[in-house]
Amino acid sequence: MNNNKLSINIFSKTEKAYWETIQELYRQQEQMYRTRTNRIDHHIVSMYQPFIRPIVRGKDGKKVEFGSKINVSLMSGFARINQFDFEAFNESTFLKEQVEEYKNFFGCYPEVVQTDDIYMTRDNRSYLKERGIRHTGRPLGRKPKKEAQTRYKREKQRKEKNERNQIEGKFGQGKAGYNRNKIMTQLSDTHES
Question: For 10, 85, 144, 176, which has the most beta carbons within 10 A of its beta carbon?
Fold first, then answer.
């Protein structure tokens, strides 16, 4: 009889999950060693939380973060989680889906979409333009020469860009106000809550 099969039968459910994680971790390390690379898909960084993935952020002091990645929209002061995943993803791929969800919920397209610059791909820009939706993303190409704008237009642009800060405030509120940083969850489904 195979020793692996015999040993698995004497493990509890939790121990069996750890054993399988260790086996996968060993396989990943061996593959990286043999291929002489430092990267592998679905890289396990915690034996106790094998669903956690490293997410490269590029921020000062924190180049890599661990945990889930979420894509959040803010409508009428309410934050809504649109995407939640432990794997890294590019938020810009979900802009169209979020705009269509807004339309389904409210019955019309939004007047303006306030986003980070990562959302403003050429494809997303043309999608918004086709539907007559303004956005607060920077224009493509060279910075235009300073042209005279009306005071009203300047104030409106400044106000829209400042409203974008509300979503960052919601993240801060969750971390500091609701002590999200102190939640110690171990399982993927409890982590999601």
Answer: 85
